[in-house]
Amino acid sequence: MSGYAVTDPYTGHRHADYDQATDAAVDAAIAAADDAYRTWARTAAPEDRAATLRAIAGLLRERADEFGEIQRRETGKPTGHGAGEAHYGAGLAEYFADHAVELVEDMPVDTSGDGVGFVRRAPTGALLCIVPWNAPVHLSMRFIAPNLAIGNTVIVKPDPHCPGSAEALQRVMDDAGVPAGAVVTLRASNTQVAHAIADPRVAGVSLTGSRRAGAAVAEVAGRNLTKVALELGGSDPFVVLSTDDLDAVVETAFWNRMILQGQACCSAKRFVVIDELHDAFAERLVARMRTAGVGDPEVDDVEIGSLCSVEAAERVEVQVRAAVAHGATLLTGGERDGALLSPGVLVDVAPGNPVYGEEIFGPVATVHRVADEAEAIAVANDTAYGLGAFVFTTDPAQGDRVADAIDAGMVRINRGLDLRPERPFGGVKASGMGHAEGLRAADVFANLKFIHADA
Predict the structure, then answer these.
(1) Which of 215, 178, 184, 241 is nearest to 44 (CA)?
(2) Residues 387, 236: contact at Cβ < 8 Å?
(3) Long-range contacts of range 344-351, CB-CB < 8 Å, 24 or more positions apart?
(4) Which one of 74, 94, 231, 437 is the catalytic residue?
(5) Which pLDDT tens digits describe the chain residue by residue (455 residues)?
(6) Is the pTM of this model over 0.90?
(7) Is 231 a known active-site residue?
(8) Which is catalytic among the residues 129, 162, 265, 308?
């Protein structure tokens, strides 16, 4: 039996099993992607690639409800959340369609009068994209869109939890007229992935996932000099220094923690609150957690569905118990029922507590009391991760100062997470390397070729 299967984490029902690729199928996928790169991708006009991306976007929007149903069964997220993800994927396709011509225009370089120089953004080849389960359509499209726009081709390796989403996305590609091999779905094993990364026809590999998976992929890529981009999670601080509307800040905090049932790399996870606001913030966050609609993701008013599996919920449950055993106080939640986990709030999480520096991948927040700005920055940076951060203050100068001091790839001041296709996404430290989204995403696997000629 293949590891690729659709199992509803809420009901436990196993809907379907999918065959894993044979070694011959892996080679065929790489050959198809390489051939498409050398033919269609290198010869199609950017206007034609843009038209293909627009066709993809249209079908994603038309089939958004279908994707919502598939993801509910695969990951336990409410149906509307999965449909929204398809719409976001469509937005990514449209954004890079809008910029497809601009991306391949020659960029002049000053040669001090010595001829003419310019940089041309050229493709590099067939790429492997390893996709996680928590947002399979979004995270596939944020790689597919910029690379199709510049002329790379993409092999998508889905997570074993989400073969249905990958299959539906491949149908979109085929029905949109994407040439054979330009986007290929490959249900590969870890061993087969390693062989693909080592294959000289694969020009680069991108992974969104855990630090452990990222290290394994980077090791193979390094041995074979295969270019790599990694997005490996975060333990994003949400710093509250002052506010004129604590209720609004708490509501923002709630939703920024609960994105994808708390299973988003870029969600707020550690709430770093100035002493005079700490108790009121924690009290109101607890109250909001207790009113959250948790349950069957098929029900319209459910805000938080199940985690992606019973095992995932068990891991968070173990983390919460370990935190309490090491001196933390659980103010609410953290109770498991199958793959459901009630939203939780932990306080008194001191350095040395197992969850102090860990990423809790589920609907549990930690709230940290700090005396002043300097301590807030120190606590915010006291993590191996550096993906995103949030800063709330009534002092604009303080907001800029703190944002500059936090080690993160993205910082939002007095606002919550608001992903848009044009906004760069990436991190530092153990959160990875490379950017997704925004025009810089097209540079990650591009050849920025300098051309110098006589005038």
Answers:
(1) 178
(2) yes
(3) 344/289, 344/320, 345/282, 345/285, 345/286, 345/289, 346/320, 347/282, 349/323, 351/382
(4) 231
(5) 468 999 999 999 999 999 999 999 999 999 999 999 999 988 999 999 999 999 999 999 999 999 999 999 999 999 999 999 999 999 999 999 999 999 999 999 999 999 999 999 999 999 999 999 999 999 999 999 999 999 999 999 999 999 999 999 999 999 999 999 999 999 999 999 999 999 999 999 999 999 999 999 999 999 999 999 999 999 999 999 999 999 999 999 999 999 999 999 999 999 999 999 999 999 999 999 999 999 999 887 889 999 999 999 999 999 999 999 999 999 999 999 999 999 999 999 999 999 998 899 999 999 999 999 999 999 999 999 999 999 999 999 999 999 999 999 999 999 999 999 999 999 999 999 998 999 999 999 999 999 999 98
(6) yes
(7) yes
(8) 265
Angle, CA of 55, 56 and 59, to the nearest 5°: 85
CB 106 within 8 A of CB 131: no
Concerning whether 265 is annotated as a catalytic residue, the answer is yes
Cα–Cα distances (Å) from 278 to 26, 286, 331, 417, in that order, read 54, 12, 13, 22
Cα–Cα distance measured from residue 417 to residue 267, given in angstroms and rounded to the nearest whole number: 7
The residues with which 268 forms a beta bridge, in sequence order, are 236
CB 224 within 8 A of CB 73: no
The total number of residues written for the chain in this structure: 455
Question: Across the strands, what pairs with 294?
Answer: 304
Give dist(CA 65, CA 207) in Å, integer.
Answer: 27
Name the helix (H) or strand (E) containing 33.
Answer: helix 23-36
Q: Cβ contacts of residue 338 below 8 Å, gap of 6+?
A: 9, 10, 12, 306, 310, 313
What is the C-alpha to C-alpha distance for residues 266 and 432, in angstroms, rounded to an integer? 12
Instruction: Give the sign of the dihedral formed by CA 165, CA 166, CA 167, CA 173.
Output: positive
Two tokens, residue 74: 């695969």
* 384, 357 contact by CB (below 8 A): yes
The pair of structure tokens assigned to 134 is: 């928590």
Residues 6+ apart with CB under 8 A from 373: 241, 398, 401, 402
For residues 172 and 213, what is the distance between their CA atoms, to the nearest angstrom?
Answer: 28
Tell me how far apart the terminal alpha carbons of the chain are, to the nearest angstrom. Answer: 64
Burial 333-367 (b: 16+ CB within 10 A, else e): bbebebbbbbbbbbbbbeeebebbebbbbbbbbbb
